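A reminder before we start the practical. When you read a complex entry, don't treat the lines as separate problems. The point of joint prediction is that each chain is placed relative to the others, so the output describes one connected object in space. Small molecules and nucleic acid strands, if listed, are placed in the same frame. In the example below there are two entries. Take a minute to note the order of the lines before looking further.
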Amino acid sequence: MTTSGENEVLALFTERIALIKSYEEALAVLYWDLRTGAPRKGMDVRSEAIGNLSGQMFKLSTAPELGDWLTVLEAPTTYAALNEVHQRLVTETRKDYDRSVKIPPKLYQEYVVLTSQAESMWEEAKGNSDYASFEPFLDKIINYTNQFIDLWGVKGTRYDTLLDMYEPGMTTEQLDRVFGGLREKLVPLSAAIAASPHQPETGFLEQTYAKDAQKKFSLFILEQMGFDFAAGRLDESAHPFATGLNPGDVRITTRYLEGDVTSALFGTIHEGGHALYEQNIRQDLVGTTLATGTSMGIHESQSRFWENVIGRSMNFWSRYYGDLQKHFPGQLDVPVEDFYRATNVVQPSLIRIEADELTYNLHIIIRYEIEKLIFNEGVKASELPALWNAKYKEYLGIEPPNDGEGVLQDVHWSGGAFGYFPSYSLGNMYAAQLTDTLERELPNFWELVENGDLLPIKNWLTDKIYQYGKLRTPSELIEGITGKPLDPDYLVEYLKKKYTGIYKL
Amino acid sequence: MTTSGENEVLALFTERIALIKSYEEALAVLYWDLRTGAPRKGMDVRSEAIGNLSGQMFKLSTAPELGDWLTVLEAPTTYAALNEVHQRLVTETRKDYDRSVKIPPKLYQEYVVLTSQAESMWEEAKGNSDYASFEPFLDKIINYTNQFIDLWGVKGTRYDTLLDMYEPGMTTEQLDRVFGGLREKLVPLSAAIAASPHQPETGFLEQTYAKDAQKKFSLFILEQMGFDFAAGRLDESAHPFATGLNPGDVRITTRYLEGDVTSALFGTIHEGGHALYEQNIRQDLVGTTLATGTSMGIHESQSRFWENVIGRSMNFWSRYYGDLQKHFPGQLDVPVEDFYRATNVVQPSLIRIEADELTYNLHIIIRYEIEKLIFNEGVKASELPALWNAKYKEYLGIEPPNDGEGVLQDVHWSGGAFGYFPSYSLGNMYAAQLTDTLERELPNFWELVENGDLLPIKNWLTDKIYQYGKLRTPSELIEGITGKPLDPDYLVEYLKKKYTGIYKL
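Here is the predicted structure of the whole assembly.
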């Protein structure tokens, strides 16, 4: 900063950011509350309150004065004199600002109404397996999205503009390469597993597991992971989620199924991974919009690292199976190896959210390829069911009996969230690549897991990833930590090694 | 409305009110969340979020355009053409608007900082029984309050200006009369009770009562009262409270003490009374600032009606004691009469919040008389401990051994809430006066209670009070329902009759 005028602008700018962050905190509490037990009859008023406050936040985020302040702070000598937090805050805010102000309010309003109707329509269409009733909505959403892409400006391909919203810097070119490599190797691996005579026994999992004991074990495992209960809480909801209001208040939920002890367990570890990320963001980012995960993909890498790499490993269960048994006396009488194998069954299936660690990626690749066809090749909504079914047949060897279990299964498109799906598999790939580095930098990594000494692992991740929040981009993080750009071979190698053991390939 | 211009102003005005109401809803959720389990480490950020959103709401509530709209809508012919909801909304909003805009923002800001510091200082001073450390803060708060009174304008006496904030229309003149009458009759009644040889046995209450069973019984009683669980919830907090976000979402809390089965029980019924009020407000008031209780006193009349008039009656326990016994097998083996008498012990004590139904009013009268002296007679903060102790000796026959159990016991003054205390006793007086009418209009009132048929009572109260929210003033309600202005004799007669029976006077 060179003059007092610029200092004043910086103060106004950071004050505005803090104000916007306060709205984000309030809205996050309102949503969390809605999903964890808000009374049914208050829903309409609550929706209106959320709409009103979101509108107010949008106004503050797109106000002309904010644009003026950004212009002042972006002047080369001014920018150069800012500290790294303020520099990043300017860059990030400019990106969001431009994205928001480029959409005419009227157009955006129409789109919000459309997607809100479409979500209800989707739910009905899915229930009735009636794609025809949803198609006109999807068609319109695609049209609006195309208008937005034009307004935002195309970088690379049209679909790149969408990808960049969820995974900053990610391109179709890069994803084609990594997903191509992944698909090529996972399809035969999945087939080899299916053909193996050594299929795990899972019958013993089908018992009634008391909810209270499940809850206690969930809390125990979170504590073991280093989840800070003075800076977070665990609740129940129909669909598990994590929400970081601020690093001192990170909330996760899980769902206890009495007939399935693994659902809440792995759900808790998954959301716990998201929570560790949010709880360990640097204090100097608190109160800024940088105090959150840097991308959907990096966030998902942490939930999946803790859930799959750690939580579904033999080393982990060598340590914790005894504790689990104690929580359910007389119920888990199989050896730990059988439990481990049962929680790692691979089985091509129709439904993404029920898929295993390996075939999950094929579900994502199918969605990625279809989204790319829509925005880069002009494929129409009417063509999607046939496309979907053909790809399931090709990659997973199975075909949906109806659209409810096929193209209609996910909520994402009804809300216009095109470009989001790749994050899930990016999470798996990032996790595997990070694990490779972790194994080298903490040579006793698996020994630590086997001893339940998880804190050094949490600390390593904090040091390398968590603390930075949005201060580093996904590729800065991955290349900085692993020395390489994203490479799908780490995931392939990890899966090959793991499943060769389990299925004796 | 006569012109389209005025219709447009009405639309802008009601839209602003709805927006303000959305902030109120969000802030209420944020506070509720803080008090029911928000993680400790998120408190600072949460406080800042609350401060920021409150500031935004204050801006919207004091914006010049709102004043302009009010002026348009207040024009006699325009106002006359408004419906009753809009008329009342204009009147109420004008009152709040004028009150807020008359205080210079800088002065208010200083005051907010002062009271926030004072509350911490008060907590420490109370713990150490050290009035001297709190006195300078109280002195400043009194000075600020006097400045506010000057800015708001004195109506009647200076203290009337404060009373009007919590009980619209209430005056010192009226309170002198009713509190005078009350004091004159309660002091000898309290003395007669103390002298009675027929003191209730309470020893059996001192047992360990399982928290789970207490919780179940609390939920059962709320259901019996007609609390709508689809429009509300019961949680736990250190200090029980009720908060109505909107009539479809009314939340209450209670506190379970394992050593005292009556604490959570009567606390739940008390907050349940507040909740019934808020849940049964008319649908056409939802989304406006009229969708809440009309005053602190009327609100308190409902909590105290349900807690004391119904909940501490022999008729109530004739019906519900068996249920209570079943929740605590083998623990409550005394006859119902003994239980009834034990929950109605009268005992002059030093601490207001632990006081019984009768002497409670004397605690309030003491505070009322002291507040009046401060603002109408210029009594100084330094004089309060001596004044306090003398009045406790005179009215209750006991003297605090220290200021922690005396003048420092309540939080109210540290937050500048002068004029609030009378509401508590107004609640008791309103409740007794309403009960008199209720007994005449529902001749089988006590039979209904004895049969656990509480819904006709809830419906009567809804019809007469709850539905109107802030659409009627306290005196409009009381005079409209009972045909008379507030009269303390109803409470005196109610207490005399009740305690003559219990203490065989």
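Discuss with your neighbour: Chain A touches chain B at residues 18-19, 21-23, 25-26, 29-30, 33, 37-46, 48-49, 52-53, 56, 228-233, 245-250, 286-287 (CB under 8 Å). What might explain this?
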